[in-house]
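Troubleshooting entry. The earlier prediction with coproporphyrinogen I gave an output that would not parse, so I re-checked the input for stray whitespace and re-submitted. Clean input:
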Amino acid sequence: MLLNDRFLKACLGEAVDQTPLWLMRQAGRYLPEYNATRARAGSFLGLAKNPAYATEVTLQPLDRYPLDAAILFSDILTIPDAMGLGLKFTAGEGPSFNHPLRTEEAVKKLRVADMDQLKYVFDAVSEIRKALVQDGKQRVPLIGFSGSPWTLACYMIDGSGSDDFRHAKTMMFSRPDLLEHILEINVQSVAAYLAEQVKAGAQALMIFDTWGGLLPDGWYQRMSLAAMQKVIALLPREHDGRKVPIIIFTKGGGLWFNDMAQIGADVIAVDWTMSLSRARKQLLEINQLLALQGNLDPLILFSEPKQIAAAATALLEDLAKAPALKSGLHPLDGHIFNLGHGINQFTPPEGVSALAETVISQSKALRAKQ
Ligand code: 1CP
């Protein structure tokens, strides 16, 4: 029933005809049609909390580019919002919370998010699934997502975006018991949230650990990785007779790549600090046969189309020279092309067309060579 299942196949380490492509934050402010819908919705939250608008913007990048997956249009901050922290978006300043967790009393009052408060997200998932169907067939699979327990804790404690998440890290160093209490509640919330997304129709799941890279070695494993491992252990691995692949992403986590490979995920998304050939070799060394996702520097998309094409080609050629994940596969199999982080809001939309054309043509040409 899936017209295009390249993305799911690549996640599970199966052979494909060309490398699947999607982009973190593929729906968003770099697209004029997104800005037009957001203006109609009145605000970011008005958009994200309305399943009809969320569906509309989820499909926008798929109508413009030949992408191989859709990602639910929502935000990682929906969970702390449902916990009662009071999410607001101030124009030009980004998200913030009215009630950040700054005292022991506030931390002890925190409860697992009520899934009824997040019904608008699950409604969006089922509406997007329906909208993806064309002539009785689903165009591409739908990815559901959540922030990691640690990354959510960063926003919950600091109360907004930050360069260093000073309050979250101060709590970690001075009162690790309080942070661990928050993380435990986040683990339960994230697992319930992702499981509900699967029930509503999400066909793969991604956990965004955007701020894991702020942690010292040792603390990362204890505070971020361990919590993601607990989430993964709680998740359904199959739905409707199909496997539901899990993708994990720690921005700045290259040093911990081998640790990340051992917590039960199917795919590791890497940022641009590590080459895919090196990542593939490390996976084979430790015999963890996970797929890879990534990892073009998103700022490449500000260059000329020729330069974008050269960078994407170089990335594919690097992986094509690495050993295959399993015998019988091409080295390019078991890879989902993506950026190393979300697409920048000022990206010229034409840059993405150059990228998509190159990924299709070069990943086919390199496969034909062997
Ligand atoms: O004004 C606007 O229109 C808001 C911009 C915006 C968008 C388009 C925000 C606010 N969130 C989103 C959507 C979003 N966020 C998606 C779905 C879109 C898609 O992928 O197509 C996803 C997956 C996210 C995830 C997200 N939100 C992350 C993790 C991924 C990453 O990029 O690192 C994080 C850290 C957030 C928090 C957040 N939400 C929005 C902003 C501006 C931020 C960053 C805040 C900060 O740290 O300063």
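This one parsed fine. The mean pLDDT is 97.
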